[in-house]
Amino acid sequence: MNAAARLVHQGALTRHLVFTYLLTRRQIAMLMLTLAVLMSALSMIYVTHTTREMYASYQHNLAEQNRLHVQRGQLLLERSTWMMQARIQKMAEEKLGMVIPDHHSVQIISE
C-alpha cells in the first residue's frame, strides 16, 4: 500500500514538473488567449448563421402575410358580390317566387 501511494504521489509530482518545465506562464497565457480568440470566432460564426436563418424566416413570413392580405381582399370582394341587393332580389324572385308589393297593397300599422 505504501508503494502504491508513493507511485500515485510521484505521478502527480511528475505531471506538475512536466507542466512547469514545458509550459511557462507566458506560454500558458498565450494558449489561453488563443483559445479565447477561437471561441470568439466560433461564437461569431454561430451568431451570423442564426441571424441569417431568422432573417430568411422573417422574409418567408412577410411574403405569407402579403399573400394572406391579398386573399382577404379577394374574399371581401367576393362577399360583397354575394351580398349585393340586386342579386338577392333576383334570387328571391326566381327561386322563391317573391315579388315586390305595389303601393296599394302595403298597409301601415301604428301602435
UniProtKB/TrEMBL annotation:
Main location: membrane
Alphabetically ordered keywords of this record: Cell cycle, Cell division, Cell inner membrane, Cell membrane, Membrane, Transmembrane, Transmembrane helix
One BP annotation, GO: FtsZ-dependent cytokinesis
Superkingdom assignment: Bacteria
Compartments reported by the entry: Cell inner membrane; Cell membrane
Membrane-spanning intervals of the chain: 28-47
Keyword Cell membrane applies: yes
Similarity comment: family membership: Belongs to the FtsL family.
HAMAP family: FtsL
Stated name of the protein: Cell division protein FtsL
Organism name: Aquicella lusitana
The organism's taxonomic lineage, starting at the top: Bacteria, Pseudomonadati, Pseudomonadota, Gammaproteobacteria, Legionellales
